[in-house]
Write a structure and sequence with these properties.
2 helices
Amino acid sequence: MSRGRKYLAEGVGAFVLGLGLLVFGGDIETPVLSLSKTGIALMVAGGIEALAGLYHTARQSPGRS
C-alpha cells in the first residue's frame, strides 16, 4: 500500500471514530475529558491526515505504487 493511500485510510478511520464519539459519546461523563470534545479533535486530525493522503496520492507518479 502506498504512503498516500495509507494516510488516507488512517485519516478516514480517525474521522469516523471521532464522529462516533461526537454522536454517541455526548451523554457520557468522564472525570478527565469530554468525549464529544475528543471526538471533535479526532475528526480534525483525521481530516488533516486524509487531506495529506490525498495530496500524496495526487503527487505520486503514475508508474509508482
